[in-house]
């Protein structure tokens, strides 16, 4: 068996989908869930996502050869501290956090002698839904999983986490922690902030009107990510604060130039901006 | 027959879909297409969308009892001037422009004695695709069509355009020109500007990286509208300039507050903003 005992801490959309995908691949002996919400864990058992659970992380990781930490970024430090002394000396640990610098700092501070077997990871997959009920085995298929190994990361541990993700049919790539955080700030974190901020702006205007009634399909697509879980995105925003503020500055500059062009009725500049954007967007396969 | 001869000037996604829906409803005797691109008009005949065409608007509107103007906003004035002397005295005219103040100004200037039979309209439907090949009879089903009749609009003309859109299974509502332009600036025009500007920002960063490769589903949904036709959105942006700049100001204020909260690590403010937005977004049915 590729993994004898897998412990997944945080059995939500990502943790649950990973469990399903690895079960489908026949890669796991036993899957142990861990979380705070027993009703959710019980539901995960009923759905066949996990085999058993324990709400105490130190108990849940006992004798696990693979541990996946899928908790919110703000909960990583405490979680690492809680499992450190209970982890088996061979356990390989990974996480699925959407920002990597803070997770790596937390791991360095709290994982002690286990640090070389910690492989920071981030599957670029998800929907605006959350919870184990939304999980499905195909979530990672043809999606990227980014690993950001550290200088001290053990190469066997790295290879085994890579193989684990390949079993979900994901494409696995390595990247530096810093580059990961810049790329995700631009392609994921900033779009979420813009969607949240636009909907919040309109909600305030809409208090005295029926504004949203006239929103068409384009608006619905554009703002779908504003339905994402606020607490999770709060954690991501604070964790990747610096990279987000940097790309937000670039965006503000671009938007201010476009606003100037509109104010000055600069036809050419407006059409050039739209055309450049369309050309770049059309290259993304749908 | 509800309409004996319908002339559609601009046989693209909107004009083509309207023709298809009215044919399906058995509401039209003959549908005459008009446009500059004969290949497109020929294709529209092959698709069964129109019965015949003429590239000269003055010829195309001859003896039509209903005329739908579906040309870009920047082409409205010239088009109105071109058809004025050829319109039959009973012809009822409508348009499908995404901003209404400029169309109304163009109509007042160029439609002459036909103004009372001009009913400004805007179907809130569309996709990021365009052209008659993308048209389909169901486009308007369960979508809103906004009419913005003028003080001088003839009530029979108004009622007939309302009935025409109801035959496409759309829900028709009346609104003032000014309110329409404010609502659309907020729910459609600003989101398009933000999507174009974000993709343009990232495209400039991406020149030296493979940034877009790591874009996930949320980004694709968020930026889909940046694939919209640049010239059309150029026209809309300039036509609805003032309302757009007003709502852009509100958005910039909201985004700057959020950026301040991130800079100051104001946890509560960040989560409150995201939660308000999620609550508003979740109310929109999908």
What would a concise description of this structure say?
Chain A folds into two domains: 3-175, 3-Layer(aba) Sandwich (Rossmann fold); 179-283, 6-phosphogluconate dehydrogenase C-terminal fold. Helices cover 50% and strands 13% of the residues of chain A. With 286 residues, chain A is α/β, with parallel strands linked by helices.
- Distance from N terminus to C terminus of chain A (CA atoms, Å) equals 36 Å
Strands of chain A, count: 9
Please tell me the overall pLDDT of chain A: 95
Widest β-sheet, arrangement of strands of chain A:
3-2-1-4-5-6
State the domain count of chain A. Answer: 2
> What's the CATH topology label of the largest domain in chain A?
Rossmann fold
Largest interface: A-B, 87 and 87 residues
From the 3D coordinates, which CATH architecture of the largest domain in chain A would you assign? 3-Layer(aba) Sandwich
CATH superfamily of the largest domain in chain A: NAD(P)-binding Rossmann-like Domain
Radius of gyration of chain A: 21 Å
Structure description:
2 copies of one chain form a homodimer. The first copy, chain A, is α/β, with parallel strands linked by helices and 286 residues long. Chain A folds into 2 domains: 3-175, NAD(P)-binding Rossmann-like Domain (Rossmann fold); 179-283, 6-phosphogluconate dehydrogenase C-terminal like domain (6-phosphogluconate dehydrogenase C-terminal fold, Orthogonal Bundle). Chain A is 50% helix and 13% strand. In chain A, strand 5, helix 5 and strand 6 (118-119) form a beta-alpha-beta unit. The model of chain A has no long low-confidence stretch (mean pLDDT 95). At the A-B interface, helix 7, helix 8, helix 9, helix 10 and helix 11 of A face helix 7, helix 8, helix 9, helix 10 and helix 11 of B.
């Amino acid at each position: 068996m590729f993994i004898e005992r897998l412990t997944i801490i945080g059995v939500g959309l990502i943790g649950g989908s990973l469990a399903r995908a690895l079960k489908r691949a026949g890669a796991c002996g036993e899957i142990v869930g861990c979380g705070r919400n027993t009703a959710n864990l019980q539901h995960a058992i009923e759905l066949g996502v996990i085999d058993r659970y324990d709400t105490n992380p130190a108990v849940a990781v006992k004798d696990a050869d693979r541990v996946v930490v899928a908790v919110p970024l703000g909960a990583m430090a405490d979680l690492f501290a809680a499992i450190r002394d209970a982890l088996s000396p061979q356990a390989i640990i990974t996480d699925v956090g959407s920002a990597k610098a803070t997770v790596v700092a937390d791991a360095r501070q709290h994982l002690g002698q286990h640090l070389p077997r910690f492989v920071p990871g981030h599957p670029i997959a998800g929907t605006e839904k959350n919870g184990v009920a939304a999980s499905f085995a195909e979530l990672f298929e043809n999606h990227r999983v980014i690993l950001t190994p550290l200088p001290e990361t053990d190469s066997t541990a790295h290879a085994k986490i890579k193989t684990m993700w390949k079993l979900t049919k994901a494409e696995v790539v390595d990247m530096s922690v810093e580059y990961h955080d810049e790329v995700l700030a631009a392609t994921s974190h900033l779009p979420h902030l813009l969607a949240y901020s636009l909907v919040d702006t309109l909600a305030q205007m809409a208090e005295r009107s029926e504004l949203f009634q006239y929103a068409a399909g384009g608006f619905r697509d554009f703002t779908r990510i504003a339905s994402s879980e606020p607490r999770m995105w709060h954690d991501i925003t604070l964790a990747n604060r610096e990279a987000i503020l940097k790309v937000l500055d670039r965006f503000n500059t671009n938007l201010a130039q476009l606003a100037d062009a509109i104010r000055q009725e600069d036809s050419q500049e407006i059409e050039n901006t739209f055309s450049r954007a369309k050309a770049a967007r059309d290259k993304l396969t749908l």
